[in-house]
Amino acid sequence: MSTEEKSAAPRSLAEALRVRDDVSLAALLRSRPDLITPVPTDLTQLATRAGTRASVVRALERLDRFALQTAEALAVAPDPATYAELLRLMGGDDEDPAVRAALPRAVALLREQALVWGADDRLRLVRTARELLAPSPQHPSPTGLGPTVREATAGMSPGRIQEILAAAGLPSTHDSVSAVTALGGLFEDRRRMAELLAGLSEESREVLARLVWGPPYGQVTHDPAAHLRALLDRGLLLPTAPGTVVLPREVALHLRAGRAHRAPEPVPPAVEAAATHRPQVVDATAAGQALAALGTVAELLKEWDEGGPAVLRAGGLSVRDLKRTAVALDLPEPVAAFWLELAYAAGLIASDGEADERYAPTPAYDEWRELPPAERWAGLVRTWLTATRTPGVVGGRDAKDRTLSALGPNLDRSAAPEVRHRVLALLAGLPEGASPTEESVLARLRWERPLRGPERERREEDLRSRLARWTLSEAELLGVTGRGALSAPGRALIGAPEPSHPAPAPEGPGDKLPVHHRTPAPPAPPAPGERAAAEAAAARLLAPLLPEPLDHVLLQADLTAVAPGPLERELADVLGVLADVESKGGATVYRFTPGSVRRALDAGQAAADLHAFLARHSRTPVPQPLTYLIDDVARRHGRLRVGAASAYVRCDDDATLDEILADRRGAGLGLRRLAPTVLAAQADPAALLEGLRAMGFAPAAESAAGDVVIARADAHRTPPRAAPEPVPDGPPAPDDTLLAAAIRAVRAGDLASTAPRKPGAGGGAPGGELPRTGSAETLATMQAAVLTGEALWIGYVNAEGAASQRVIAPIRVEGGFVTAYDHTADEVRTYPLHRVTGVAELADDVT
């Protein structure tokens, strides 16, 4: 490299960022959004922020496995390292072709994220990353390598170093520095090292083999055995502390044939298909699941229409109430928790905020019910994709060893949306109709986001793996997938393109359909602006797959009604009040009972209305037993009236009241006769109603005016509630508008901070600080610049107290303001002079 090229090479990360174009800077800020919050004042501050420990740790955690292995190799390479040296560390002496092909991408990714800077002949890992990844006794390197010879011999006596040289067959030197250099040169020389190792015993070589892939440290006694003494004498093992020895890095690399990692992974593992199905089968299965999902959510909210379970003091649902809900929905508790959390995340249920706080549907539920089925489904799945609340952790323990309850706090897992989208995107990369093996999906996710450190891996990898497994099962429950394969509506929802070559495949397990690593990467999550379009596209694809709602049922003589498919909402609502659901499946069976008929009468229906309704919506004649049941319940309904006195019962038939008074089951109600047709009670009206119904009567509630109170099932709603906001995993990704504005501001600030000034200008302000001049000098310099047209460097503090540096060309100075062309903002602006901290003239060659 020539002298001019050396002088042009960047000497710091800030200089490397300074020569980047806007596209490259935008890629950096997009991949590391924490660097833009808040927007740096200039490129020097951006470089400083990019080198902070928190930011570097976050960037390293988001690298794929091969890029992370490349960074780990640079941490044990010379600083700076050449690309050829890095290639030897990654590919070994034989330079693995797969590593050679993948390494340019990994280096480019590290450069893009400002973890590596410099040209190929001087690659530098940022200092913080080197400190995190380089080996040390407290923090072993992921490569398993130990310290270099120079680092391991730092505290060794010169005499001992000379003894090692002699035992290794090297001539003595005049100083320790040259001795260590000679020893390191021996270990890096493949031929001489082979000769040195050939002279060792089999036991000595076995010790080296145990240490070569790490950990490189071992224990020895004060009087080591002969095979260990041979290694110590030749410097193949070096002491680091009393009783502790280490295998030098150069020796380990020779034994590894130059590899920094035992198993480089340049190629992501393929996602394999466990089975393939015809796309039509997948879509039909998914549509059936989608319809069942809508029915489950509707049934859940119907159960809570009159007010759901109480809210725990710490928030959430009690274990007992979760069990009751699971029994009512005929589902396992984990699945019931999933539907509860989904409805909650969608804003369909919430706490009512009353003194006796309970869960209930929100007004948004009524709006949701009015939507077409496909749109209702798309809204639920969109909520699922973006929600950070994770129902799978319900029943687990938090950091304080408290049980995590459904709908309670501490269920947010910020990684959930990313994992869900990645799993679905991997499914989108499979041939159409193919369902993946779970283990291949997990292996791919581990490659794309490996975790550093054994303790963290045990803790967090388990969560990410569970999130992936939950995603596969939840996607099937929702109908995003059918038989494990991504459906057409699911593909549209995540923004994946339709397969260009649909592959018809026979039904059956065991087909291996690997996703080649050179296929295009699965799509990124849709941006907020694209999400609505993706949702609408998914709804359009699902709508033709859903059956049309039916306007009829089949009445049977055993007091049941069979709905052979989904019913129209109005029919389903009325039938849900008039009868109880007995079984669900492909067809829903409803059973008519005295209690269900009374419920319909309580809701304001008359017997004639019920007869007409059944005759209108039944494809079979109304059975006589059902007609008798309705007439019999209607005949007795309302003969008793309950009102508030504390409570009273009135009835025109005094014999009925005599019967009530004689019934021992009514003893707890505190009944006594006030008149031949009126009984008074100590219980409140609601308890009195329930007590009389339990005794087999059919009382009706009465208002203060003596009118029958109609009880409607959908009477209880919470006040308007907003759905819970997802908890983001770090700063949100900036959009193109924010990126463009941020880059413009950073470059403007950098121009102001690096513009050369005339010697002695700016009140002696050192580089990076605002210029400081008195008000008189500032005014005089501004007025002179108006006459000469020269540009000035100023310090400025805005009304919020934020300081910045600017390069301006004054146009007019009057009334305590300066109007100037601001080179940093690329526009004409006016600044109050009292907010200018100082002014300095720029060098003559700066405009």
Q: What would you say this structure looks like, in words?
A:
This protein is α+β, with helices and mostly antiparallel strands and 847 residues long. A five-stranded mixed β-sheet has the order 19-20-18-17-21, with helices on one face. The chain starts with a helix and ends in a 6-residue tail after the last strand. Keywords: ATP-binding, Helicase, Hydrolase, Nucleotide-binding. GO terms for molecular function: helicase activity.
Compact description:
The protein is α+β, with helices and mostly antiparallel strands. The protein has 34 helices and 26 strands.
Tell me the span between the first and last alpha carbons: 33 Å
Radius of gyration: 38 Å
Count of helical regions? 34
Q: Which structural category do the helix and sheet elements fall into? A: alpha+beta
Strand order of the largest sheet: 19-20-18-17-21
Oligomer: single chain
Task: List key phrases describing it.
34 helices, elongated, WYL_dom, helicase activity, five-stranded antiparallel beta sheet, 26 strands, 847 residues, alpha+beta, 12% strand
SSE blueprint:
Layout: H1 3-8, H2 13-18, H3 22-31, H4 43-50, H5 53-61, H6 65-75, H7 83-91, H8 97-112, E1 116-117, E2 124-125, H9 127-133, H10 149-152, H11 158-167, H12 176-188, H13 190-198, H14 202-211, E3 217-219, H15 226-233, E4 238-241, E5 244-246, H16 249-255, E6 273-276, H17 279-303, H18 319-329, H19 333-345, E7 349-351, E8 359-361, H20 363-370, H21 373-386, H22 416-428, E9 434-436, H23 438-448, H24 454-478, E10 481-482, E11 485-486, H25 488-493, E12 508-509, H26 528-542, E13 554-556, E14 560-563, H27 569-578, E15 580-583, E16 588-591, H28 594-602, H29 607-617, H30 624-636, E17 641-643, E18 647-650, H31 654-662, E19 672-675, E20 678-681, H32 685-694, E21 700-701, H33 736-754, H34 775-788, E22 792-797, E23 803-814, E24 817-822, E25 827-832, E26 836-841
Parallel strand pairs: 17-21
Antiparallel strand pairs: 1-2, 3-5, 4-5, 6-9, 6-12, 7-8, 10-11, 13-14, 14-16, 15-16, 17-18, 18-20, 19-20, 22-23, 22-26, 23-24, 24-25
Helix pairs in contact: 3-33, 6-8, 6-9, 11-12, 14-15, 18-19, 21-26, 22-24, 23-24, 28-30
GO molecular function, one term: helicase activity
Domain Helicase XPB/Ssl2 N-terminal: 553-675
InterPro entries: WYL_dom (IPR026881), XPB/Ssl2_N (IPR032830)
